[in-house]
Batch of 2 targets.
Target 1
Amino acid sequence: MTATRRDTFHVRIARHGLVFRFSRRSTVLTSVLWLCAGGVLALSLGLGEFDLRLADTLRVLGGGGTLIEYDVVVRDRLPRAVTALGVGAAFGVSGAILQRIAANPLVSPDVIGVNAGASFGALFVITVLGGAGASLVLGALAGALLTGAAIVLIALNHGLSGYRLVLVGIGIAAMLSSGTSYLLIQADYRQVLNAASWLTGSLANRGTLHVAVIAGTLAVVVPVLLVLGRHLRVLELGDDLSRALSGGTRRIRLSLITTAVVLAAMATAAAGPIGFVALVAPQITRRLLPGRPVPLGTAAATGALLVIGSDLAARLLFAPTELPVGAVTGVIGAPVLLYLLARANRIGHTG
Amino acid sequence: MNPDSTPATTLSATTLSAGTLSASATATTLSTSDLTLAYGDRHVVRDVSVAVPPGRITVIVGANGSGKSTLLRGLARLMAPRRGSVLLDGRDMARLGARTLAQRLGLLPQQPLAPDGITVSDLVGRGRHPHQRWFRQHTEADSAAIAAAMEATGITDLAERPVDELSGGQRQRAWLALALAQEPDVMLLDEPTTYLDLAHQVDLLELLTHLNATLGRTTVLVLHDLNLASRYAHHLVAVKDGRIAAEGPPADVLTPDTIESVFSLSCAVINDPLTGTPIALPRPQPR
């Protein structure tokens, strides 16, 4: 028996004739990453300007504690932390899907313009309509989805190949950032401040609405990916071979790209365009699992850990001032990736 | 780059088996009827009606830009016919379901790209895709087909090596194993020898011949080298300007006249002293 074959195991549900394939290494890694993310979640609930010990946090979650403790933990920190996990997972999966389909590690929803679309939509709501809260979420969502649809439609014309998708996306993103700059210049000082925080990606003041947006998205997308995810194994072999191995891939490719765009759009609507996560989470995952393509579940866990860790750091490092989480993801994510790259080179794996 | 295993040793490994790969009971026929293929307004293959002999090796030859690779793409349904049709066992391929087609047609593209760092066995395993479903991601037949495909191509020992660390010859065998693991009725190979040195070209073609003899699978390949085509083809198809210029056994096709008309090259044709197949020798330009 060889290593890959030893690494692979199958879960059978004999009664229904179901067989699912898993990799030991990625299953273990995914579990560890989610446990870490859960640990950071527990810390996040307790730490801050109003410090609680872990036992107290648990007591408050269980329904005990004072009103003010309940307010801080359950109404303020919990939605924020849960949104962080969901958004991180969504960005991680979105990036992993796009990078594998395009067979290009530089592709991510931020690069192809989804985040730029969300930013433009949100900014339009802030500056032109003077909205906030739910209307801001809707504006971002509309912006991201319209952009995504435009990218897919234009790229589709010539078969959705990787490079075309990226180039079309970069073009659209450039136009949208011009639009965003224009809106910022037109806006008044207060609106600009408000917008700046949103444009960096922030998890401050997240509530039930934001949790519902991202949880609802994941509830729909995860089953879709359970069915479609396996096609990534042939899509990443290139156009010709993937068509030979699945008879016709246009529909599957389109569905997967749409899924990735929707994930990024919903995540951006919930937390703003948190930069770098979708790009770097799959890359970190790849370095942790050399010799195999990035599994979506592991990319989700990496993204979730990255965002919730960054948010905790953003809250604590410069307390009492809070940084927007988007200002920290790059600062934390990039060194992790660089470290893994340096180490990988030493032990003989290439980029 | 790793040192190449010499063709001679890899070949002896492969002559052992292939018996475990299921041989097609009756070989599949592949043919076209008035097939026209086009990129936009440019008709690259025009009104081609060709019948690929079942269970044999057919080699398509032609000058650069003659439409030979396009014809192969049409046979693989990578391009939809502008006019006419491609028939698999007499049925219009355009009407076949995606999964059915994927189970019946195997392809080795010209420059396949392996995802970064994946191992040989992972790559070969992906050939099983058309036989799997999201709820049935593995069966015993998958393990058996993967093992047999790697053994038949002599790469069992390389199973855990990353594909990007293999030599050109080994890599081409890995891609061939992927197509074998798919267990298709028809194998289509687009210039499989292009980036190989002569020894590995011969090695790969010997392997294909051996597999064809054991499995009886209909095989179509595009080759550049006329003399190798002549040696390994049962049936030779010469393409010129998108049309069939000549087809038949190499001895009938490889004549000075045909070569002159297809390649605009003046040649003498002699018989290969080793195999008796024709060899084309380009005439030197007078100087």
Target 2
Amino acid sequence: MMLNRRRQTAGRVPDIAARIAAVAAALYASVGHAEWALNFQKPVTTIGHVQYDLHMLILWVCCVIFVVVFGVMFYSLFAHRKSKGSTPAKFSHSTKAEVIWTIIPIVILVTMAIPSTQALIRMEDTTASDMTLKVTGYQWKWRYEYLDHDVDFYSTLSTPRAQIEGTEPKGENYLLEVDNHVVLPVGKKVRILLTAADVIHAWWVPALGTKKDAIPGYVNEIWVYIEEPGTYRGQCAELCGKDHGYMPIVVDAVSEEEFDAWVAGQKSG
Amino acid sequence: MTATTADHHDDHHPTGIKRWLFSTNHKDIGTLYLWFSFVMFIVGGLMALVIRSELFMPGLQVVDPHFFNQMTTVHALVMLFGAAMPVFVGLANWQLPLMIGAPDMALPRLNNWSFWLLPPAATLLLISLFMPGGAPAAGWTIYPPLSVQGGMGVDFGILALHMMGISSIMGSINIIATVMNMRAPGMTLLKMPMFVWTWLITGFLLVTAIPVLAGAITMLLTDRHFGTHFFDPAGGGDPVMFQHIFWFFGHPEVYILILPAFGVVSQIIPTFARKPLFGYTSMVFATATIAFLSYIVWAHHMFTVGMPLTGELYFMYATMLIAIPTGVKIFNWVATMWRGSMTYETPMLYAIGMVFLFTIGGFSGLMLAVVPADFQYHDTYFVVAHFHYVIFGGTILGALGAVYFWLPKWTGHMYNETLGKWHFWLTVIGMNLTFFPQHFLGLAGMPRRIPDYALQFTEFNMMSTVGAFLLGFSQILFLTNVLRTIKGGEKASDRVWEGSEGLEWTLPSPPPYHTFVTPPQVK
């Protein structure tokens, strides 16, 4: 479906008429096949779930405050109009009201800070991991070293140049596909070490629920415990130069047996 | 302060180009600042349209990735240092002497210099686009080591930032000196209008924050050319240290941009609600508290650099605290409207729009403060949406409202109300169409600062681009309205608005070239 739709947008002749036609076709097609994703990608790690719940909690707290505050404001804008004959009241302060609307936010903030603190303590605890993956950011590719398994490879964008330039239809995983996938076992606590060789990058796979910068001269740590097998895609999230938009990350989460078989295959290959 | 009489005043009043080049008059310099910032607003806006054109569809259609990065970087620098900061210095120049009953700014020659540094600085920044290697392309935050890689355009950018910084420091020294020394007899600190208060506090933020930026970019310059390794790990330096120094400036900078807009809204809402500002004293203290907190929360811009847990917790708690004084201000504005007698002229629409849209940016700011969730939001379009709600929804709407509010006073003519309302509605619709979908893009996983994106982000990007063009072209209405008001139009009364309160409304519209040569008495 996605492929068909993009085929209409591809034109070899970069003249203006073709572009306008392509834009019109894309606009037309997007009405029918829109993704319209509004929220986080489905989390697949333990900390990803914690993060998602916390995100929804604050979002709803903000929505409730929004409705209350602007409910009052819009009621006032409607009811206290000069054209409706409203005469101005004389009051200009009220200690009671001001104390109340200082205390209530403090209470809300404290109730938000408690689960946030608990979640953060858990996310930053990289101890007792089952294996370690070292990730190094380069302009513009990633290097993956499996420190416990003696596996080491680079991973670069595999989307053909022609798709980017629009002379070929764009594939389903346009810009989110690489030559060598990261393979990780499900049901294991994987510690990921992050560093960079040139400039600052950031390793981010949204479904894994974490992000951290890869900084030259530093080794940062995160951990993931993937619960569901699958393929998860992400990108570099820190501006790292010309091809910052073209260094994606693809993680294949597989069962322990498949992971062992993959490691064995990497060594023999 | 000695009061000289109007008859003996030395009326230094050159004409033609000299009037503007050599001006020491706060009104003329205010006008220069306002026009300069409008030109920069258009230049930065055109760059935003280049960005949005490229992002209309997946794939590369309009520009190459390196030029795209130059556009995002220079757009931000032009908007922040060329448009958002100078527009409020312009408003301060025009309004502070009129609002505190002073004959002019305390340091008129410094005032001239602080303005005339800006055009060469802006020129330096813009010609960097034509240098080998192009303009700065590492984002407006110019993080090393990436910013060390750039061509000589980066050095032009650094020099431009230095000049704009010196201009801001001098401008704010002038504002502090004026407010502290030149208030009319009887105008105690706690009788000053809120716009004056917010600018006084902003002035202190500027004189303390800008030198920190100057230090950071000077170290960057020596790293680039003079063999130092402040930020280079290979020479024992630390790239994260740059971020700490930069954001120690950068977070106060955020409040430098928003506090004067808070002041504007605090002038406009009571005027059109025909009711005094609710909780004046708590407004003053909330502003001061926000300014203080702005110095101790900087690292919340860099939660993903790998700080220790305790550091992350501290910066999370401190950041959440800002919600309290900010909340106080919003509640006070709503309470000012409550049981007022409201009319909705264009300035009031802008003030209400500012309160509403800034608060949306405040909510997303609160979400960003929560570190575990920030690991997902950080460096995505969610952040882009957040700061555009705060800076466009807050700062720019505040500035536009201020222009409509005081334009009749400055020109002696009423602007066209119908055109003003059209401008307001098209601007807020354009703004929301541009930036609201970016929340969804960020949550769904689109990083910021990328020229090309995966297919699932197409729809909201298209909406955002359509909104950006609407937003951009709506500003033609603003320009038209202002030019027409300067040329002519219905005569404005001295009070201009029915609910006007304050010294500036006791003067004729337009005010004479020199005002308050004899200080008024404030009871």
